[in-house]
Known about the structure:
This protein is an alpha+beta fold.
Amino acid sequence: MKRFYKKLLSLLLCAALLFSLTGCRDKKIDKYQDYVKSLISINYMGATEDYIKATGANKEDAEALYQSNAEHLADNILSYYNITITDAATMRDGYVELAKNIYSKVNYKVSEARKDGSVYLVDVTIYPINIFSQSSEAVTAYVDKFNTDVKDGVYNDYTLEQYETEFSTGMLDILNDACLNMTYADPVVVTVEIVEDGNTFYISDRDFLKIDAAMISTVIQTEISTDSDAAN
């Protein structure tokens, strides 16, 4: 069977599309702070209680939002590392759990809402998760060793499913290990605007995507790539 070397693609981590979320108006400006906190806690930590309280959403929708965000990150990780899931549910579930593990490490602070002219703004200080940089050396070594084994015929007797499972399992172990001692990049401040609309308020999808883009650092200090396309 013809085996393909593993190649690492450009990293594109995008937020799950977040439609405009609404909440009941409150005269206290700390309501806006709580609202932004609830958005972050539900999307990255699955904390449904605060989100439901702040927005009036039901539990099923809240849980679905968290699951969707985790699945989106998992799919981006699979794409970036050129991982093909052939045993579908079992292995993909492992990467969804990895995504939840990564997101459980988010490090941020939501400041009190402040009024700027006619609008309210909320500053979110984020310490970007550094997992891709901190694991890049181990990933590079693993990919190089895997490609050498491919060239040496180690996987010639493997089925395609066994071959892909071998690679994806090794990558999953490396990334889960990195989660045990998560490091963070220098903090960034993202300012979001509270959009007031009649009896509701929310932040725009664009502002939430700014938060999401800052949560995980995509800076890779070690080059991780291969220069071959196919093996024997």
